[in-house]
Amino acid sequence: MDIWQATHRARKDLADDLAGLEAAQWKHATLCGAWDVEHVVAHLTAAASVGRWAWIRSIVAAGFRPAVHNERRLREHLGATPQETLDRFRAVIDSTVAPTGDLPAYLGEVIVHSEDIRQPLGLPSRADTGAATEVARFYSSRDFTVNSKTTVAGVSLRATDSDFSAGDGPEVAGPVLALVMAMAGRRTYLDQLSGEGVALLSSR
After folding, report:
1. Using an 8 Å Cβ cutoff, are 139 and 151 in contact?
2. Radius of gyration of the chain, Cα coordinates, nearest whole angstrom
3. pLDDT given at position 53
4. pLDDT in tens, the chain (204 residues)
5. Count: domains in the chain
6. Which residues contact 39 (CB under 8 A, 6 or more apart)?
7. Which of 55, 108, 139, 142 could form a disulfide with 148 if both were Cys (CB 3.0 to 4.6 A apart)?
8. What is the DSSP track for the chain?
9. At a CB cut-off of 8 Å and minimum separation 6, what does 161 contact?
10. Those residues with Cβ within 8 angstroms of residue 60's Cβ, 6 or more apart along the chain or in another chain
11. Of the candidates 175, 179, 106, which has an alpha carbon nearest to the alpha carbon of residue 140?
12. What is the distance between the alpha carbons of residues 153 and 172, in angstroms, rounded to a whole number?
């Protein structure tokens, strides 16, 4: 799979969904902590705009506190209006800027944050199964932008809609997107999963 192509497609799909939002929906809560929809979109714009050296300077200036770094960069990319925030996001749809070469992680960021927005708004998912499978493989093998490998340690993961499987232990089975979201710490996706390992994931 061409990871950048998949990332660009995921960004475009989200931008198309955002174009239909009403003003109040931009302030709707998401699955991403205290950030509303507009905050998450600005964060994704920042993520597509900060290369290696800019990221290093920013994280050092933030005292190596990722939350501070993320909040500062988000504020840089918020527009004066939701439409301006969306326009800024559209401008980076085809960006190939990333802090490191771990491209599945940055594809995962777009997929996960898109669902962070869509699920609370009741919008149908548009995540590509193949792209989500690439992210699932990465998440199950490494703790990077999220503590995904630690979260699923000691369980066996099996996608019911793709060829993804990983790990050993009590089984957790379900759609690969739900597995990705669970690995990213989104509890609301656990009800799409089944197997003896789900209780263990829930406890984490």
Report:
1. no
2. 17
3. 64
4. 899 999 999 999 999 999 999 999 999 999 998 999 999 999 999 999 987 767 677 777 768 777 776 777 878 889 999 999 999 999 999 999 998 999 999 999 999 999 999 999 999 999 999 999 999 999 999 999 899 999 999 999 999 999 999 999 999 999 999 999 999 999 999 999 999 999 999 998
5. 2
6. 30, 32, 74, 78
7. 139
8. --HHHHHHHHHHHHHHHHTT--GGGGG-B-SSTT-BHHHHHHHHHHHTT--HHHHHHHHHHTTT-HHHHHHHHHHHH--SSHHHHHHHHHTTTT----SSS-HHHHHHHHHHHHHHHHHHHTPPP---HHHHHHHHHHHHH--SSS-HHHHTTT-EEEESSSS-EE-SSSEEEE-HHHHHHHHTT-GGGGGG-BSTTHHHHHH-
9. 129, 175, 176
10. none
11. 179
12. 12
Are 59 and 140 in the same domain? Answer: no
- In this structure, are 23 and 99 located in the same domain? yes
Domain-located, residue 112? no
Q: What is the 3-state secondary structure (H, E, C) of 176-201?
A: HHHHHHHHCCCHHHHHHCECCCHHHH
pTM over 0.70: yes
Structure tokens belonging to residue 147: 């503590």
The answer to whether residue 116 sits within a structural domain is: no
- Nearest Cα neighbor of 43 from 87, 85, 95 is 85
The CATH number linked to 151 is: 3.30.1050
